[in-house]
Design goal:
The protein is an alpha+beta fold and 296 residues long. The chain has helices at residues 42-65, 103-110, 163-169, 186-192; strands at residues 10-13, 19-28, 85-92, 116-117, 123-124, 130-132, 138-140, 154-157, 175-185, 199-206, 209-218, 221-231, 244-247, 266-271, 276-280, 286-292.
Length: 296
């Protein structure tokens, strides 16, 4: 990390020789009039969470450009010039921030709303171009669907790198509820699992470890999820589990796709031709996780 000219920014060098700069930030609780997320509707919670993320990302873009009269903008620093500029962000703005998963950041960056399931089991995904605030103002979202934030190469995001991960990696006894994405070749799935495992299935790995699985076919793959509820002693999670990277297709200096290649990381892209978000999950990617501790 460098603190040149009183600026704190992570300067990273990959083993390939590629270099990039990462600025880390969190969306935090307001100092006054704290929001009670439990009293908000699902739509209001999503919009509130999205606005908090958007404002922090916008602040970092302003610091890069020097908007607001900053004497030494990031873009003027020699170790920043000509290299990808990445914002790493996590939400801590209310007690339920972890529950947004990636719905808010999808909306902020790619203008994608959470999918809604149709009666036939298919999913419908709507897109948004703005959020309407309580005061009636319209705030633009989908900032990676054009060149308005071309200075930011990518965003690193996670809602699982919070206190729950510290509890688990600290070895504290608790109960864990986690959901992981699952995907396999349809031939391998039918050979190893069988057609009876399509749909929803429930199983027990032990007296204290229950798994609810969902599988459905799509072309030549079978995909779905495994939801585990178990003791922490029956659960493992790496430091990178739950991490997402969102690439800006309009970035002036793109982040190379091979910089971050750990299996746990989900890579997200926006196709400028089809106007669609594309997610590259690996089998076993962590989608969400909650921990439940004994108050005693």
């Amino acid at each position: 990390m460098t603190t040149q000219k009183k600026v704190q920014i992570f300067f990273l060098k990959h083993k390939s020789g590629r270099e990039l700069n990462v600025e880390a930030v969190t969306s935090n609780k307001p100092s006054e009039n704290e929001i009670n997320a439990t009293e908000m509707s699902e739509e209001d919670f999503l919009n509130y969470s999205s606005l908090k993320l958007l404002r922090k990302i916008s602040d970092k873009r302003d610091l890069f450009l020097g908007d607001g009269g900053k004497k030494h903008p990031y873009s003027s620093l020699e170790h920043v010039k000509g290299k990808p500029f990445v914002v790493a962000i996590a939400p801590f703005d209310n007690d339920l921030s972890f529950s947004q998963n990636n719905t808010a950041i999808n909306k902020v960056l790619y203008g994608v709303e959470p999918p809604k399931q149709n009666y036939d089991g298919t999913f419908n995904v709507k897109k948004s171009s703005h959020i309407e605030t309580y005061s009636g103002d319209k705030v633009k979202v989908g900032i990676f669907t054009d060149d308005s934030f071309k200075e930011i190469s990518a965003v690193i995001f996670s809602t699982t790198g919070m206190f729950g991960k510290a509890i688990l990696q600290g070895g504290i006894d608790c109960m864990v509820k986690s959901t992981r994405y699952r995907q396999s070749n349809i031939v391998d799935f039918l050979s190893n699992e069988g057609a009876k495992k399509l749909g929803i299935a429930q199983s027990k790995l032990s007296d204290t470890h229950e798994v609810i699985s969902m599988r459905q076919p799509l072309d030549d793959i079978v995909f779905g999820s495994d939801m585990h509820f178990c003791k922490s002693s029956e659960y493992t999670e790496t430091h990178l589990d739950g991490l997402h990277i969102y690439y800006n297709p309009y970035a002036e200096i793109p982040l190379h796709k091979n910089i971050f290649q750990a299996h746990e990381i989900t890579h997200n892209f926006y196709d400028t031709s089809s106007k669609e978000m594309i997610c590259h999950h690996n089998d076993g990617s962590l989608v969400s996780r909650q921990v439940f501790t004994n108050k005693n």
